[in-house]
């Protein structure tokens, strides 16, 4: 079959499939060319074949975009996707798809670290044109300035019912009462067609000074700190039935027509907390309060001074007296003080007052019994051997201000020192007797402190003792502001420790304050 043997297939003459693909058509190299020139210079710049590959990709994508409906459908999808984005106050990059930006990205390649935005008329935009910068610097003022604030525009439009040109700039709907914000496209649209609406949840009313003319349930009272601190400004809410900011039980009591006996049963005993509180009664201070005469910018300048934020119990110094002082700066809701007996003059004690931030309080009473056995008996018999008592106390010390720092550390330094001996004029060491008061459980009860321990929690802040300019501050010290303290106390009773004999009026008061007479309720 010589005819079949002579047949040849010319690969160069094979036709392409129907249509314009492939978009890039390169001729095969010649059969007799051992060194084709098509690959010369591929390693000249960048990775192997980078530039020619980028050019080929750009030519191919451009041809695909111009060929039939494929590229048009892709561009339409991207345009719809861009329109479904949230409309912000920033003008760029906008929400319109730009095919030229996609081609530019193909031209540089992802491996170059260059990333263009696909929307808008520019390949990139400055940071000052982006949403965060625009919001912070151009739309953070009030409606009377060039810089708008959407909240102020909403107040003007929705509460005051005044339509201003600024509403459109921040997408505020000025025509539909039930819609706050509205714009075309966005997440609420379908493929970019339609509008996004942020609806109003409830209808509040325009502020009206004449609150007494409105229903109580519709009255909205929003007061600033300065208004709360100024009782004159509170007169405008008198029509609401709320005469002042305070204990609402007092208001109910004053407005009620019920008899006093009924009020007492329903409301209980009433207390005016505006007058009786931890600050006015016990001198606890208001560390978080910023009164008009308190300047935090100059707070740590110069010598520490007493302010509204100073705790007077912490601030008051150690003193020597025959009895503990009382009153503001010495009392707490639970009395808590130490009186250390003067070994040279037992009529005097050195007193230390601290806040009763008790973290633990335990009172252990124990009886000692000695065991023995009789001959021929297997079990133990017991003989009473004595009585012992030990009290454990844990408490926290908070330093709220610079003025309290040194007084507090002087107190805990003195409490640590009474564990060491006190020397007589002749040089003999003596122990220290301490009188402990904790509420009415222990009232001026003498005893010995077996030791005291200070712990400084990890979350405690430290005073760093620096001025505003970074120089060392001689008026304070680098010390923790939170101290956890604990100690064991052995009472020395001023009565004979024994079983109570008079049940109605016990003389054996292991608990300091008991009713003098016990009577049954009728």
List the helices and strands and how they pair.
Elements (H helix, E strand, L loop, with lengths): L1 H4 L44 H17 L3 H14 L15 H10 L22 H7 L12 H10 L6 H4 L9 E6 L10 E5 L25 H4 L19 H8 L4 H8 L10 H5 L29 H4 L3 E3 L14 E6 L7 E5 L3 E16 L8 E18 L3 H16 L4 E2 L5 E2 L3 E5 L3 E14 L26 E10 L31
Average pLDDT across residues?
81
| Contiguous helical run count | 13
Share in β-strands: 15-25%
Shape: elongated
Give the ordered list of helices and strands.
HHHHHHHEEHHHHHEEEEEHEEEEE
Class derived from helix and strand content: alpha+beta
Helix fraction, binned, reads 10-25%
- Give the spatial strand order of the biggest sheet: 3-5-4-10-11-12-7-6
**Stretches where pLDDT falls below 50 for ≥5 residues?**
39-43, 216-220, 223-244
Q: Distance between termini?
A: 136 Å
* Main beta-sheet annotation: 8 strands, antiparallel
Rg (CA only): 43 Å
- Strand elements, count: 12
Question: Nutshell version of this structure?
Answer:
The chain is α+β, with helices and mostly antiparallel strands.
């Amino acid at each position: 079959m010589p005819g079949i043997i002579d047949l040849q297939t010319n690969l160069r003459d094979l036709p392409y499939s129907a249509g314009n693909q492939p978009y890039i058509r390169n001729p095969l190299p010649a059969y007799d060319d051992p060194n084709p020139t098509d690959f010369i210079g591929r390693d000249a710049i960048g990775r192997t074949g980078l530039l020619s590959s980028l050019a080929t990709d750009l030519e191919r994508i451009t041809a695909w975009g111009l060929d039939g409906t494929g590229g048009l459908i892709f561009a339409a999808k991207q345009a719809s996707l861009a329109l479904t984005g949230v409309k912000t106050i920033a003008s760029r990059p906008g929400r319109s798809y730009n095919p030229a930006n996609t081609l530019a990205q193909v031209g540089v390649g992802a491996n170059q670290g260059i990333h263009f935005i696909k929307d808008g008329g520019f390949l990139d935009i400055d940071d000052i044109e982006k949403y965060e910068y625009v919001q912070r610097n151009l739309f953070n003022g009030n409606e009377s300035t060039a810089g708008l604030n959407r909240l102020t525009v909403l107040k003007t439009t929705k509460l005051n019912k005044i339509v201003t040109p600024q509403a459109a700039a921040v997408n505020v709907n000025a025509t539909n009462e039930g819609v706050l914000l509205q714009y075309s496209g966005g997440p609420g649209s379908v493929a970019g067609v339609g509008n996004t609406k942020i609806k109003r949840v409830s209808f509040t009313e325009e502020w009206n000074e004449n609150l007494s003319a409105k229903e109580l349930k519709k009255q909205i009272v929003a007061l600033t700190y300065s208004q709360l601190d100024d009782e004159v400004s509170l007169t405008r809410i008198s029509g609401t039935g709320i005469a002042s900011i305070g204990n609402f039980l007092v208001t109910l009591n004053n407005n009620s027509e019920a008899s006093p006996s009924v009020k007492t049963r329903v409301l209980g005993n009433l207390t005016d907390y505006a007058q009786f509180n931890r600050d006015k009664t016990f001198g606890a201070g208001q560390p978080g309060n910023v009164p008009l005469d308190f300047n935090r910018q100059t707070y740590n300048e110069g010598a520490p001074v007493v302010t509204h934020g100073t705790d007077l119990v912490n601030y008051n110094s150690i003193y020597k007296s025959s009895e503990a002082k009382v009153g503001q700066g010495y009392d707490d809701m639970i009395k808590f003080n130490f009186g250390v007996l003067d070994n040279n003059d037992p009529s005097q004690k050195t007193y230390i007052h601290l806040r009763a931030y008790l973290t633990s309080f335990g009172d252990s009473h124990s009886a000692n019994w000695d065991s023995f056995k009789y001959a021929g008996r297997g079990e133990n018999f017991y003989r009473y051997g004595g009585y012992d008592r030990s009290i454990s106390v844990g408490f926290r010390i908070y330093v709220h201000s610079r003025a309290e720092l040194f007084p507090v550390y002087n107190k805990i330094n003195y409490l640590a020192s009474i564990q060491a001996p006190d020397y007589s004029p002749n040089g003999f060491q003596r122990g220290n007797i301490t009188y402990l008061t904790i509420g009415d459980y222990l009232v001026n009860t003498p005893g010995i402190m077996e030791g005291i321990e200070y712990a400084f929690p990890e979350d405690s802040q430290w005073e760093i003792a620096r001025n505003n300019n970074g120089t060392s501050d001689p008026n304070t010290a680098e010390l923790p502001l939170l101290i956890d303290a604990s100690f064991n106390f052995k009472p020395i009773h001023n009565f004979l420790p024994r079983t109570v004999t008079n049940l109605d009026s016990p003389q054996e008061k292991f608990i300091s304050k008991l009713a003098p007479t016990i009577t049954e309720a009728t």
